[in-house]
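Section 3.1: Structural characterization of target chains.
Under the original work plan, the team committed to producing a structural model for every single-chain target entering the pipeline before any wet-lab resources were allocated. The record below documents one such target. The sequence was received from the expression subgroup and is listed exactly as submitted; it comprises 559 residues.
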Amino acid sequence: MDKLEQAKKTFEEGIKLFQKKNFKEAQIYFEKTLEIAPNSSPTLENLSKSYLETKDYDKAEKTLKYFISLNKEDDLIAYKLLYEIYSTTNNYYELKKITKDAINKNKFDNELHLKSRLFYPSFFNTSDEIKETRNSFLREIEKMLCDENLPVLNLSKHRLKPSNFELIFDGHDNLELSKKLVKLYKKIYPELSKISDFSIKKNKKIKIGFISQFFTNHSIMKIYKGIIYKLNKDIFDVFVFHSDKTLPGSSFKEINESVVLYNFENIILPKNFHDKVNIIREKSLDILFYPDIHLSTNLYYLTHVKLAKFHITSIGHADTTGNDNIDFFLSSELMETDGYQNRYSEKVLLTKHLPMYYYRPKVTIELKKDDLVKKNIYSCPQNLIKMHPDFDVVLKKILQKDKKAKIIFIKDEKGMLDKLVFERLKKIVPEHIDRINFIDRLTPENFIHHCGMASVILSPFWVGSGNTFMDSMYYGTPTITKPSNYSRGLVAAAAYKQMQIINPPIVNNTEDYVDKAVEIANSNNLELKMYYKEQANKYLYENLKAIGELENIFKLIVK
């Protein structure tokens, strides 16, 4: 058998193993193929893909760079896969380099061209890095707004992930940048401006729709299902719109099986953008409620089209949209600070309570008393995308002040951010890194138990605890929070106010944050936990007063 035939046979065995998802074994055969035919494009491509499947990003990167160095006409896939690696690993600078090279060589199609220029990282090592990246991103947006030859896309075929999602976590005011992004999205999708307006007939009852991709096993479902269920159906006709991308799960099953009990209608929207528009418009809604604008790429661009008399968003993704098609932002007097309206493009509506009806969590087996009195356990069980570099100094000072402190994080779903956060902390507190642990992801019930076993919960800066705070109050574990001027960092402080907590652990600066955390973590705080739990049961969970407030607000809007 000659070498060419041997390479072909070895490659085919690798493909068979790849198709069976035996990626490690497939790599062996592809590597053997390259020993015989080192410049084989199909082998380089599939070896890179198999490395990506096993998260061997360094090997994949090295293989793809070699592929590109060969200057082959079919190396487009190498550029695309490198983009995938750099976006997954948050390697912003390499991503920008490969993007510039690919665009100059005409290696990206229109979608990837725009996608790469709109990429915004979800992780930074320093605050200065945030400022530098943010300024660079703003310059890129302005350049694209002035580009008369900017590619355009079709909404039903290519939907770009809105960069606004990541921007919320970097600690800056996003109003003006969001307005520019809205203009840019309309430029990329000119068909948005061509969708005609429409008139809505007078309804006997107020028709209100709730639209989200995450009415399933997700925090959005936990925060908003109570409003859907509890609105007075003698006054409101309620519709719930799901994305075709909504994942199955016990909560999705629940909301689908609750239509008779709570008298509302579930609608799963189709894939085609214009079909989505038509189906929502057919309901002639008075109000369309977007709980979480920017979380779903699949539904985001609907926010640019008139689908109801009035459009409302709220604290599911607590940031202004910059979109003049969104009329109102639903917030609370407990959350907003002086000059709040200046931070929103929407008119802000304020309730006296948190704008949610949150069901008290259910567990099958209660923790024992001994589990609730452990000391020196500091848990920060938040999504790691919230780990702003400014917060690192808190962790460092806690570890320095409390020699018995153990700080616990929960690994991220993709297994990438936990590695990045760990490496950043290792540089800051190398002598204490053995007291920082990242645990595997937990079931909903075990998450609640984890919060209960913690001595204290740490809420990060800028985007703090929301759903985590609500769940943690099942056992009453105190959360330390340092509020900002933005609603995205004010939910925990607002919840303490609603709970009527005396001397809540709300702090104004880093030193007070550390002192309060260490004080609580070293106290016999079972009595404190019981007090918080009692107040949560009285004032936080299943708050019908919030439903009454929301009903009055919705009626005033439509009046």
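The radius of gyration is 26 Å.
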